[in-house]
Design brief:
single chain, about 240 residues, alpha/beta, Rossmann fold, 7-stranded parallel sheet, 7 strands
C-alpha cells in the first residue's frame, strides 16, 4: 500500500490531510513537534479508517531531525509539506528573530523535507510533493509580511522544484489556501472574521477537509506539476 508523509499532522489542515489519504486507501505517516495530544487524536482518526499510521516527533526546522525522520520511513511516495506558523505584526514591530522563525518553519522546513525525500523518490522511480501555501503568498497581507513572504517563497520553490524534478518522475505542486477554520486563525474575533469574509465571494471560510481534498487531488493527478491550486473561495483570482 502507498504511504504519504504529512508534516504538521497533529491538527488543522495537516490532520485533515491524514484522514483524507487514509480514507482513500493510503497508509499515513505524519510528524508533529509539541502537540502530543493532537498527534494521538490524528493517529486514532487514521486508524479508525483502516489505514496504517505512524506518528513521528520532528521539528522540521532541524536538519538532523528531518534526516532521522526519513530514515525511519520506507515506502513513502507522497510528501505533504504542511507544517507552518503565522505572525501577525507590523513590519516595524517584527524582529529579525521573528522573521527568521517564520521562514525556518514555512520555507526552510519544506526545503529540508523535500531534499530528504528526493533520493528516496529517485530510488522508487518517482514521487509527489504537495506544498501547502497561502493566498497571502500571492496577494500579500497587511501586518503579515513575514508570513506572506515565506508563503510566496514556498510558491517559488514549488515551481523551481517542479521544473528540476519532472524529468525524474517527481511532481511538485502547491495548494494556496484562503481563510480556513483552523487554530491558526483562532486569534480573530467573530467581528474580525465576519469583516474578512465580506471580501470572500463564497462568503465563508474553508473547512480543513476542503483543503485536504485539493491536496489529495494533486497527489493523485499524475500529469499535473508546477501548479498552484487556489482554495480560497474566490478571494484572489
Amino acid at each position: 500500500m502507498a504511504m504519504v508523509l504529512v508534516t504538521g499532522g497533529s491538527r488543522g489542515i495537516g490532520r485533515a490531510c491524514c484522514t483524507a489519504f487514509a480514507q482513500a486507501g493510503w497508509d499515513v505517516a505524519f510528524c508533529y513537534d509539541k502537540d502530543e495530544a493532537g498527534a494521538e487524536e490524528t493517529r486514532r482518526l487514521v486508524s479508525e479508517r483502516g489505514a496504517g499510521v505512524l506518528a513521528l516527533r520532528c521539528d522540521v526546522r532541524r536538519e538532523e531531525q528531518v534526516e532521522r525522520m526519513f530514515a525511519a520511513l520506507s515506502g513513502v511516495s507522497v510528501l505533504v509539506n504542511n507544517a507552518g506558523v503565522a505572525l501577525f505584526a507590523q513590519i516595524q514591530d517584527t524582529t529579525l528573530a521573528q522573521w527568521r522563525e517564520v521562514f525556518s518553519v514555512n520555507t526552510e522546513g519544506a526545503f529540508l523535507c523535500t531534499r530528504a525525500a528526493i533520493p528516496r523518490f529517485l530510488r522508487r522511480g518517482g514521487g509527489c510533493i504537495v506544498n501547502v501555501s497561502s493566498v497571502w503568498g500571492e496577494a500579500g497581507a497587511s501586518c503579515e509580511s513575514a508570513y506572506s513572504a515565506s508563503k510566496a517563497a514556498l510558491i517559488g520553490f514549488t515551481k523551481a522544484a517542479a521544473k528540476e524534478l519532472a524529468p525524474s518522475g517527481i511532481r511538485v505542486n502547491c495548494v494556496a489556501c484562503g481563510m480556513a477554520d483552523t487554530q491558526m486563525n483562532a486569534r480573530l474575533s467573530e467581528q474580525e472574521r465576519q469583516a474578512f469574509l465580506q471580501n470572500v465571494p463564497a462568503g465563508r471560510q474553508a473547512a480543513p477537509e476542503e483543503v485536504a481534498a485539493a491536496v489529495l487531488f494533486l497527489a493523485q493527478s499524475r500529469y499535473i506539476t508546477g501548479e498552484v491550486l487556489r482554495v480560497n473561495g474566490g478571494l484572489y483570482m
